[in-house]
Specification:
323 residues; mainly alpha; two-stranded antiparallel ribbon; 73% helix; globular; transmembrane; transmembrane helix; cell membrane; membrane
Length: 323
């Protein structure tokens, strides 16, 4: 009886799968190459450090937002939460003379409280996350004006440190790296992250399997609030003052960074590393256009087109998965 050897053909490099999983990274590399050709100033050390500082605020904010989007939600209030957290932190530091890092703790607590309220409105008040966070956007921005009386407030030394340099390394970049590591670990290796993926993938199936869906929603919004607060204090530290209009409109850039990074607005898909790449794409585009002396008005047009392409790519990818 003869035996037949069965051989399997080794799989070659799947370009389509690679681009589907790493499209933003490839786009970032191509973008950097194009800008280097267009203006050699782009890849200078000083400019790259500037890009790192610029991306820190949006990226840290987007890390928290990734948790909400993975759980099939949206948080439009992160820009306003960033402003209120920085404002309250600075207000208490100047009026109550809070010692050292306590001003940062107060700011993070404000962000967590705002996230808790938004999560409660969505989980227990049955409001869609879009409406709940839109309401919080207006409420929190109004509270920022109330606390500040419409005027800037000087930051504490601890908050100012977040926007300073530690030797030759800017502190915002250090905070960015640490935030990415913490957020990535929580999303990928803890029950919080696994439950967020489960709820975003199929809410009803998650509920039937015993996952506390309401608690998960509360948790992801609290995480989003904490990262938004940290982002706001980084920005205030860079400016040496907390301003009522701080981080206005940043929520749109944060959402764009998450989507460009490969997260699905339908939930269940997302990576912190992808969000970081998405934030870098936005920062590099803005930086490159500035170096090329492109009008700020046209920059908004370009960013809008990038967001439209990213969302369209996400829709196309999900259709292919279904079929």
């Amino acid at each position: 009886m003869s035996s037949v050897a069965i051989t399997t053909k080794p799989k070659g490099f799947d370009l389509k799968a690679f681009l589907a999983n790493n499209g933003a990274l490839v786009g970032l590399a191509v973008l950097c190459l194009a800008l280097f050709i267009a203006t050699p100033r782009f890849l200078t050390a000083a400019n790259l450090v500037n890009v790192g500082i610029q991306v820190s605020t949006i990226a840290v904010m987007a890390f928290g937002l990734t948790f909400v989007i993975v759980a099939a939600g949206i948080d439009l209030s992160v820009g306003s939460v960033a402003a209120l957290s920085a404002m309250v932190s600075s207000y208490w530091a100047t009026t109550a003379n809070l010692p050292g890092a306590w001003s940062i703790v107060v700011g993070l607590a404000v962000g967590a409280a705002c996230g808790w309220v938004t999560g409660a409105m969505s989980a227990y008040g049955k409001l869609p996350t879009f409406i709940a966070s839109l309401a919080m956007l207006t409420i929190v921005r109004g509270l920022t004006l109330v606390v500040s009386d419409g005027r800037p407030i000087a930051t504490s030394e601890s908050v100012s440190f977040l926007g300073s340099d530690l030797g030759v390394i800017p502190v915002p970049i250090i905070v960015l790296v640490l935030s990415a590591l913490v957020a990535g670990f929580v999303l990928n290796y803890t029950v919080i992250g696994k439950n967020a993926f489960a709820v975003g993938g199929n809410t009803e199936a998650a509920r039937l399997s015993g996952i506390p869906v309401k608690r998960v929603l509360m948790t992801v919004f609290i995480i989003s609030g904490v990262f938004a607060a940290l982002s706001g204090m980084i920005l205030a530290g860079r400016l040496d003052s907390a301003q009522p209009t701080l981080a206005a409109g940043y929520e749109l850039d944060a959402i764009a960074a998450v989507v460009i990074g490969g997260s699905s607005l339908s939930g269940g898909v997302g990576r912190i590393s992808g969000t970081l790449v998405g934030a870098l794409v936005l920062a590099v585009i803005r930086n490159g256009l500035n170096l090329l002396s492109v009008s700020a008005f046209w920059q908004q047009v370009v960013i809008g087109l990038v967001i439209a392409v990213a969302v369209g790519f996400d829709v196309f990818r999900r259709k292919n998965v279904r079929h």
